[in-house]
UniProtKB/TrEMBL annotation:
<dbReference type="InterPro" id="IPR002347">
    <property type="entry name" value="SDR_fam"/>
</dbReference>
<feature type="domain" description="Ketoreductase">
    <location>
        <begin position="9"/>
        <end position="200"/>
    </location>
</feature>
<protein>
    <submittedName>
        <fullName>3-oxoacyl-ACP reductase</fullName>
    </submittedName>
</protein>
<dbReference type="InterPro" id="IPR057326">
    <property type="entry name" value="KR_dom"/>
</dbReference>
<dbReference type="InterPro" id="IPR036291">
    <property type="entry name" value="NAD(P)-bd_dom_sf"/>
</dbReference>
<comment type="similarity">
    <text>Belongs to the short-chain dehydrogenases/reductases (SDR) family.</text>
</comment>
<dbReference type="InterPro" id="IPR051687">
    <property type="entry name" value="Peroxisomal_Beta-Oxidation"/>
</dbReference>
<dbReference type="GO" id="GO:0016491">
    <property type="term" value="F:oxidoreductase activity"/>
</dbReference>
<dbReference type="Pfam" id="PF00106">
    <property type="entry name" value="adh_short"/>
</dbReference>
<keyword id="KW-0560">Oxidoreductase</keyword>
Length: 301
């Protein structure tokens, strides 16, 4: 099989001034892409900002013989995202890949979490993915080509104490790509999610130095490079960390149909095990498939 290459392609990576995003940007450039290195350069909680982070990674790419533009706009800034995309279009004339990776944390138990803490995290992760995606979407449609990778998390998929804000944002991104995968299909726009586990400033305080090294960002990077490539699937959620790769999927059980005469809260209670029976469960490709099943069951099928 041939190598995955990005020659003549243009990629934008948000939050690429450090951690995972830096690794993605360096590798895309090494494989021939022209790269916009976006990073606000702020603190882990979203405060502050400096162009040094984006500029540092863009300089690394150029020093290795690649092409890069540094951009220090916040992903939460509509006009800033539009200007970033225009900057790339003026320089290179197309945008093939968007990796929405920027992120912050405001961890607290829900009891202690303020609404502003919730909003700040939703803004950066969820709207901070929507805004750059919106800015590239019509360009990708016109090109009949696009690869979008959003960044979810095991917290969004399964939950984690102290991260109600982060989890809500991260699962919101799965809802986002579930529809982009459908709307992008006829224009060859594929949308996927990475669910990484990696040693970065986000996880530094949670693991030992040995584990931190063993789960370095470069072990996640190959999965993202594949999701950004011509051969990428669409609608996949790729979990990756330390060299391990797995797909996360949502399944729905076959369930039961309660005839009108049997319909009651008690019947739902009494049928709970049957409603949850995993035999025949399915992963749906679109929301309408759930409705089709209900209509089939209503008709006695
Ligand atoms: P990181 O803090 O090193 O990287 C995040 C980057 O985003 C930082 O460089 C930061 O400056 C930038 N950023 C923050 N707010 C921004 C904004 N408004 N505009 C532009 N840039 C902004 O941490 P990381 O671990 O590399 O995180 C990358 C992504 O992976 C995040 O979305 C994170 O939630 C996700 N993630 C990481 C892990 C993990 O184990 N490290 C697990 C699950 C998900």
């Amino acid at each position: 099989m041939s190598d995955i290459r990005f020659d003549a392609k243009v990629a934008i990576v948000t939050g690429a001034g450090g951690g995972l995003g830096r690794q993605y940007a360096l590798e895309l450039a090494r494989r021939g892409a022209k790269v916009v290195v976006n990073d606000l350069g702020g603190n882990l909680d979203g405060t502050g900002g400096s162009p040094a982070a984006a500029e540092g990674v863009a300089a690394e790419i150029k020093a290795a013989g690649g092409e890069a533009i540094a951009n220090a706009s916040s992903v939460t800034d509509d006009a800033g995202m539009a200007a970033m995309v225009q900057q790339a279009m003026d320089a290179w004339g197309r945008i093939d890949v968007l990796i929405a990776n920027a992120g912050i944390l405001r961890d607290k138990s829900f009891t202690k979490m303020t609404v502003p803490d919730f909003e700040a995290v939703l803004n950066v992760h969820l709207l901070g993915t929507v805004k750059p995606t919106k800015a590239v979407w019509d360009i990708m449609r016109a090109q009949n080509y696009g690869r979008i990778v959003v960044t979810t998390s095991s917290t969004g998929l399964y939950g984690n104490f102290g991260q109600a804000n982060y989890g809500a944002a991260k699962l919101g991104l799965i809802g986002f790509i579930n529809t982009l995968k459908l709307e992008g299909q006829k224009n060859n726009i594929h949308a996927n999610a990475i669910s990484p586990v990696a040693g970065t400033r986000m996880t530094e305080s949670l693991v030992t130095p040995e584990v931190f090294k063993a789960i370095a960002p470069q072990y996640v990077m190959p999965g993202v490079i594949y999701l950004a490539s011509d051969a990428a699937p669409s609608g996949a959620i790729l979990a990756a960390g330390g060299g391990a790769f797995a797909l996360a999927r949502m399944y729905e059980t076959e369930g039961v149909h309660l005839a009108p005469a049997d319909l009651s809260a008690e019947a739902v209670r009494d049928n709970w095990a049957r409603i949850g029976d995993e035999a025949g469960q399915q992963a749906y490709a679109a929301g309408g498939e759930q409705g089709q099943k209900f209509f089939r069951k209503m008709a006695g099928g």
